[in-house]
Amino acid sequence: MNDLYSRHRQVLPDWLALYYDEPLEITHGEGRHVWDSAGNMYLDFFGGILTTMTAHALPEVTKAVGEQAGRIIHSSTLYLNRPMVDLAERIAQLSGIPDARVFFTTSGTEANDTALLLATTHRRSNTVLAMRNSYHGRSFSTVGITGNRGWSPTSLSPLQTLYVHGGVRTRGPFAELDDRAFIDACVADLKDILGHTRPPAALIAEPIQGVGGFTSPPDGLYAAFREVLKEQGVLWIADEVQTGWGRTGEHFWGWQAHAQSGPPDIVTFAKGIGNGMSIGGVIARAEIMNCLDANSISTFGGTQLTMAAGLANLTYLLEHDLQGNARRVGGLLIERLRAVAAQLPGVREVRGRGLMIGVELVGPGTDEADPQAAAAVLEAAREGGLLIGKGGGHNTSALRIAPPLSLTVAEAEEGAAILERALRSTY
Predict the structure, then answer these.
(1) H/E element holding 358?
(2) Coil/strand/helix, residue 103
(3) Cβ(392)–Cβ(374) under 8 Å?
(4) Which contacts qualify for 253-256: CB closer than 8 Å, 24 or more apart?
(5) Burial state string for 144-178 with b = 16 or more CB within 10 A and e = fewer than 16
(6) Is the pLDDT of residue 1 over 70?
(7) Is 387 left (phi over 0), alpha (psi -120 to 50) or beta?
């Protein structure tokens, strides 16, 4: 392993971050477990950054990939592609967007990049509203709208970005307000921004902020924003790269917690739909999707191999009601972790929905982020046989828990016990 780490450092960028003091090589997985090159088994509560949505080595997906690879792997979008059309039809129907069109990409970054292209072209404006503490990818345009300094390496951007309040409920200038007053204050902030700038192309928002530490506003905030945005024709882009496909348990899409004013104009997705295969995409009303007046194709977006995987994975998810499982098992896991947090002064908050759970850590007796503690808990959890993630806004001090949606009650209890020991060893 040390030899592999040395080779990694010789040929890959310094900024390509690795977890753990002694980085881990994962060699194989099954269900909710993975194994490293030393033969150690871990319960996987991060799923390749929320990407292994159903299970590792899910037979239905591996069979579909193998069969498709035996026929043809790739042809590009210049030719008719039955698996791509099949998956697009399923996603359009599930999207809640009327007259929906679907364009496939290879990642969430590319999906958000495409959504920005569509919105700015349709609206003939390069001004974009984004949320503070947000993350939307690592391309030039998506870095430019990311409201998280730790993941934004440049201030240069093809877009004019204005950041609004609301993505973080329990920090910031409106944190002490009740939910209704919080929404009212954020709407007033949005109206104030709109009064000082040319009409923007769109507001882009994650229903639950992923890299930001699984933070979210009260239900209905984006519906209230939508009412204001509609007055100027400003589009709403819901970044569902991490929240889509039932992960939140209560809803299939994260935006449905804010549905009082109708669906978004554009939805972006990626990660879980491919269960590890490289799939991203954009869903938009036909008038928006069709607004481009120049040639555009995708070499690898919608390739037959990934589409076969996505179809099999989505079918399994729906037939086995994994959204319902996320709601039930995730609810138990959140309550279990909240009971532990109540006994530990360094745990500020346990938040989230379904199997998308954040545990924010602070210095005991303070309200200051504690990234050192987060790193220590990450290491201790690994030693105990559990893989989790981390994130956060001003400082990386939130643990991110997002297992495959097929997690069992017994596995949830096992993971919670390991995490409890890791927390207690740190505090």
Answers:
(1) strand 356-361
(2) strand
(3) yes
(4) 253/95, 253/96, 253/207, 254/206, 254/207, 254/208, 255/207, 255/222, 256/96
(5) bbbbbebbbeeeebebebbbbbbbbbebbebeeee
(6) no
(7) beta
For 23-66, the pLDDT digits (tens) are 999 999 999 999 999 999 999 999 999 999 999 999 999 999 99
> Mind listing the pLDDT tens digit for each residue in 193-249?
999 999 999 999 999 999 999 999 999 999 999 999 999 999 999 999 999 999 999
Express each pLDDT in 144-182 by its tens digit: 999 998 889 998 899 999 999 999 999 999 999 999 999
| Packing angle, helices 304-319 and 59-71, rounded to 10 | 150
DSSP state of 369: B
Kindly give, in sequence order, each residue whose CB lies less than 8 Å from that of residue 342, ignoring residues fewer than 6 positions away.
none
Beta bridge partners of 161: 128
CA atoms within 13 A on the CB side of 299: 0
Task: For 356, list phi and psi in degrees, rounded to 5.
Answer: -140, 90
Quickly count helices (H) and strands (E) in the chain: 13, 15
pLDDT in tens, 302-347: 999 999 999 999 999 999 999 999 999 999 999 999 999 999 999 9
